[in-house]
Design brief:
The complex is a heterodimer of chains A (about 300) and B (about 300). By secondary structure, chain A is mostly beta strands. Chain A contains no helices and nine strands. Chain B has one domain. Classes of the chains: A mainly beta (about 300), B mainly beta (about 300).
Chain lengths: ~300, ~300
Amino acid sequence: MLDFNNILSTPGMDVQYFTGQSTATLTQWQTWRKPRGVKNIYILGVGGGSSGAVGANTAATNAGGAGGGSGAQTCVWIPAMFVPDVLYVQTGAGGQQPAVLVSAATQVAGVPTYVALEPSTTLTPNMTLLLANGGTSVGGTLATIAGMPLAARGSYTFFVGQNGTGGGTAGSGAGTTLSFPISGIMVQGGTGGGGGGGAGVGGLGGSMAAPSGSPINDFFLPTQTGGTSASGATPATAGGSGIITRNFIMNYGGFGGGGASDTSGGVAGAGGNGAPGSGGGGSGGSTSTAGADTLARPGNGGDGFVIVMSW
Amino acid sequence: MLDFNNILATPGADIQYFSGPATGTVLQWQVWKKPRGARWIYMLGVGGGGGGSCGNAAAVSTGGGGAGGSSGNQTTVMIPAMFVPDVLYIQAGAGGAGATTSAGFGTNGIATYVAIVPLTTLFPAGTILAANPGLTSATAPTTSNGGLAPTAQATGGVAGSCLAGRGFYSFLAGQVGGAGGAANANAPTVNLPTTGLMVTGGSGGGGVGSGQGGTIGTTGSLGTEFFPLLQGGVTGGSAANSGFIARNFLMNYGGTGGAGGGGGSQGTAGSNGAPGCGGGGGGGASNSLPTIAPAGSGGPGFVYIITT
């Protein structure tokens, strides 16, 4: 038996987890079936996080890319009698930059997450039980009950997604540090990449601050740094990817990559991928004077997800 | 078996009650352990009630009564057990002490918290439930007027208890205590709260002379079986009534205020509040007396955790 947090495989409680396969809105649905005899249903949904932005790599402009925004978060509790025996779940994919990167391209939005009565390709609020928007250049937009009126048979909460942070300015600026969210949301934005340096040293990828007054333990990480910047002949490094901490206390966003310098070959550090629902890290900035493609790939936004518990 | 209200020891529901010994903020923690097989967790927390203030022992026949203390704020959280660690730490804040000196203020209550780590600093990102305490009056009774009611205490909202965002929650501000009575005047009645709050403020003390302590309750509109009137102190008569817990936890009553002293006599003491409630204010008195009747203390904060 997997006795995870003392809850999974618990008699009388059905817990199902859906994660983001939906790369387009309202076209790819998964199915949830109501277990026999359930009385209550709880659904938590988070939209897909957006990718990080691409750092610039022109000689004149070499700022780091901004971090991606997290998806928005929505919770619904509802008596099972108001829910059909089958629900359709779209868990929005996180945003990803295209295969061929473009200098200074902005974030790619994550796809929204839905739970609906029918697998419709047209958004119909009266068929929607849960909506959680995906991250864009900012955090996912707050849902409202007008977009998911069926939830009004029960209780619900909405949280806007967290913005990613800005990339470092041209000329070795560091990516902006991300504050730990204290709104109640369980996902984060990504941090920005470091700015490129013409020669010598680039900027650091953005850090993530530990929560105010935080202990250092397995629930909360200490302040985490982004990718290191290029220094002399040492190239920039990639930002780390986000993780899920114990008991789903927080899904971390991706970290920004370090900024490049000419003397290290001009290649910037990549951004880290966001944990589910979180934003990706921005890639570092660089210059084009190295004569090669010096762009680095920003981190992907974390896929949206849905947890359905019924009992 | 303690079959209290037919709910404790109910098969399938684990009910634990924590009451407030914490006399300092985030310093004294109790431990809750998640029962095996838990699915949902409900928490209700109330901050410690504020202490009542004393009356004024001023010129003969003019001292006002002290104000009652405010109740603590009330917070509820309903959250899936999978988002809750196996151990939680609880600070149930103590109630504030009642004043003991002429025109003296009581003490504010202590806040109530449920957190995932027992830190000694406030840590909203690791907090599931927070309920601010009740305050004591900040305006003392004068030689002619009663002390003013305490100010309302703000709720922290989900920004003060971030982990509640995985579930559902409500935040209710506490009820302010009643003002003290002016000389020869009764302290006003403290009506039962209609916000959803399950605790009341304390009532004020009566002014010197014939002033009676404030009543707590709502006359005529509610069944007395569930919501009786709680009488304040009566000059030359009964003492102030202490707060109590009404049936089925429908309402915790604050302490009522004491009566004002008659000519040459000391006012009577304010009474203590039930858990989470404010203490009653002391009655006004004469300055010819060596002592003054103390005010009541606020009730200790508390936390219920019900796991199913």
